[in-house]
Write the structure tokens for this entry.
Amino acid sequence: MTTAVPEWAVLARRDLKHCEGGGEAVAACWDTVPTMALRGSAHTNFARRSMAIPVGNDARSKAVRGHELLHARLSPFTLHPEVLDTWGVSQHAVMVAEELRINTVLKSSEVFDYRQLKDGSEVNHAKSIAGGTDEYLYEAVCHMVSTMNTGSENGVYKAFLERYPMMKEIRQMLKATIRKHKRVIGFTMPQRVSVSEGESYFYPTGFVEFTIPIALIVDSFQRTSEEDAERYLERVRARSKSSPKSGQSAPLIIAAPQLTENGRNFLSRTRRASASGRLPKRLHRMLTDPERRIFDKVARHAGGIVVIDCSGSMGLSSEDVREIVHSASGCTVIAYSLMSGAGKPNAWILAKDGACISAADFPTMGQANGVDEPALEWAVRNRKKPSDPIVWVCDGHVTDCTDTSHENIREACATLAIENGIRQVPTVEGAIALLREWSQGRKAPPSLFGAVARWATSHGVISSSSGDTESEIIYYDRIEKITNQPTKEKTK
């Protein structure tokens, strides 16, 4: 008989000191409770430090034990409702998505046979769901996700396919998401997640980057309280048939929250006393000011637009974004990140004309990019003068509408940045320093960073450049017109 040692699985994690519950998970020995190798019988409980596992020496019992040990090795110690609200996902969707993550990791293992993760009840349950109404689609999607990459996957899929033909597109969508995020599936480095009240929690990177995108897809097939049966079916059919084209950005959908706070600062327009002018508005200075500055002079500081990438790879908290907003509130500030679900906003105007958004009205944003190119295009179109500077706060990881890195998107963003003299900086500190330089009349040369910078240099579209070896920012001094050059993607 092969035994399970949950303590060793937990100790191998890299997030023990950061994630809530990590200390308790290794505070004492775990209890292992014998159970049957049936669906729903085995489980892992971090709070009680207990694991219910089958104790047989057969292949199925071993596979189930491996599945539970992977939960101890990779799954979050606890789920906070406020964090799930920030992500916009339900706990049920997160649980089935996490099952898929564990199944996927176990499938790649050479120790356990993932095909043994079945007991025969999965297909019968699928047939029971398929015997219901069309509104059971959400339950069908949840069941299919929880059995993917197990021995019952094909049987469950076939049981649903005749009743719900759209399952083919849904399964393809899920498999594409699995391929896209598989590289981080088993990472346990802690990743900070900030909620609207300003609190922060840490979750394993693999959970944030893999499980949550899957859960968002699952929840997009859930019926809302505002939808009747007809509208629900119409929406989910459109959702399943929507297959975004690789290499294209998603359409930009801008929301304009209320800007209720006074954001005037060193970048805003100010009035100063002057000895010349048209109308004397400071007559009281005739007696107190030796230079008799009784007129008003309007000092207009550097305007411009700040574009902030708020995707998951940036790791920005709401406080980070608000710090940029308050530092640049004399400018127009727009933040973007792709949300799951059709028709949802993916860009938000956070400051404009000296007013900025309050903490209470700060929007919930997504985890993906997807609209880097149209966000930059919007900034170029909406600056008041062609000479107005544009700051782009981005790490250079730009993606298409499926949130996949693509040559076309890197080319489009680099072209926009170079032809319009956009300053790209990867950090909050860099953006604020750049804004302060503007207020003092010093403008740094245009700059690029990350994958966007590498595309520009490898294709020779930056004529003269110098690199900052510490930050990997590339400053270019002279801009030449970019011709349409074939990329590797287009020449295939």
The first helix runs from residue 6 to 11. The first strand starts at residue 31 and ends at 35. Residues 276 and 295 are 6 Å apart (CA to CA).
